[in-house]
Design a protein that fits this description.
Blueprint: E1 8-14, E2 24-30, E3 36-40, H1 52-58, H2 62-68, H3 72-83, E4 87-90, H4 93-107, E5 114-117, H5 124-141, H6 148-168
């Protein structure tokens, strides 16, 4: 599935990489028009998992989430408003779909959009260009990785560059 329309991208940061106990702590979007949105997520009372090594990677403390995080239901509502009816792409579908499900289940809501892997947008040749192009984009943008909004922006910029490489070839 290739598209010439710039897709929306989503990224999550999480309490850990445990696919049983972890939960989303930040979600970031890069919409089709390039606009960026992100929310720190206030941990639900039953969300207790926390990994110090994950915290070292994303730099977000649980205390910051408790003070500055947006309630789970509000985040789900914002996502539904901004992404209604869209296909939205991520680069770590197993993890991102788990955290999306955890967010919506806790909010007692259903996503109004569909999450897919960025690999669905790429030909085998484009997949070969993805990793080195992503590294180039990170260097060009000069933004920290492992923050959800930045990572969503990096995904979209990488997709745009990979599409341009294929157009030139």
């Amino acid at each position: 599935m290739t598209t010439s329309i710039t897709p929306a991208f989503i990224d999550f940061e999480a309490s850990s990489l445990d696919l049983i106990a972890s939960y989303p702590i930040e979600v970031g979007l890069c919409l089709t028009d390039g606009s960026i949105h992100s929310w720190l997520i206030h941990p639900h009372v039953l969300w207790l998992d926390w990994s110090e090594s994950a915290q070292q990677i994303h730099g977000i403390t649980r205390e910051t989430l408790e003070k500055e995080g947006v309630q789970v239901r509000q985040v789900a509502h914002h996502l539904n408003e901004l992404l209604d009816g869209q296909l939205v792409f991520c680069d770590a579908w197993t993890f991102d779909s788990f955290w999306l499900h955890r967010l919506y289940r806790t909010a007692n809501m259903v996503p109004s959009f569909q999450l897919e892997s960025v690999s669905m947008l790429l030909t085998p040749e484009q997949v070969e260009h993805w990793a080195p192009t992503r590294q180039q984009v990170i260097a060009e943008l000069g933004v920290p990785v492992h923050r959800a909004a930045n990572d969503a922006r990096i995904l979209q910029a990488t997709w745009q560059k990979v599409m341009a490489i294929q157009t030139i070839s």
